[in-house]
Amino acid sequence: MSVEIHRANDRFRTQSDWLDSRHSFSFGPYYDPANVGFGLLMVHNDEVVAPGTGFDTHPHQDVEIVTWVLRGALLHQDSEGHSGIIYPGLVQRMSAGSGIQHSERNDAGEPVRYVQMWVRPGEFDLTPSYQQAEVGESLATGELVPIASGLPKHAGTTAISINQNRAGLSAARLAPGQSIQLPSARHVHLFVALGNIILEGAGPLTTADAARLAPADGQRATADPEGAELLLWEMTD
Description:
Layout: E1 2-6, E2 12-15, E3 19-23, E4 41-49, E5 53-60, E6 64-71, E7 74-78, E8 83-86, E9 90-95, E10 100-106, E11 112-119, E12 129-134, E13 145-149, E14 160-161, E15 167-174, E16 179-181, E17 184-185, E18 187-199, E19 203-205, E20 210-214, E21 216-217, E22 220-235
Parallel strand pairs: 13-14
Antiparallel strand pairs: 1-20, 2-3, 3-4, 4-11, 5-10, 6-9, 6-11, 7-8, 7-10, 9-12, 13-15, 15-22, 16-22, 17-21, 18-19, 18-20, 18-22
């Protein structure tokens, strides 16, 4: 088993008067041939967007994009006529397929912080599609809950589906001192969205730190006395 810890402050950072973005992998002007992804995960950006600003209309093709908001609200609009406001407790997926254009704006009065994740699709050139679902109540148990997945083992249990049957995203909101067991998988990407944890075999991780496990074999993650929110990708490739 291999565990790589990637600290929040060690990531490449894009900053402007309206955007503060930390990139887990090569993205935009930042390119590192040794860090272009992990398993099927291509992009994992931790974004903060100022009020009244955002990403204007831009294109995507053949990528599965999942968005998870941690604070504030994000307005999504796309060329297929979909429109939705994403807020904490709601998960959103956009399958770009044969091509789509969309915008992401913060029309609220406070900064919005969200995590956007891109996964390679299982099939290409499909009709673009969009899905969002409320999952906040299901996280109240503190368990690891599948929220966006194409993994066969998650069939019928996940809130929304993705066009990739070898990857799935789960979330957990841990109470103080609560722990979860990570799934066994060829690739597991664990992101501490909020709070602090102790990862078995690796030690402490704090907000916006990540661990890449290849493979993962059931390690435990335990929240500190303040609790924690986690995002976890498991991939069979």
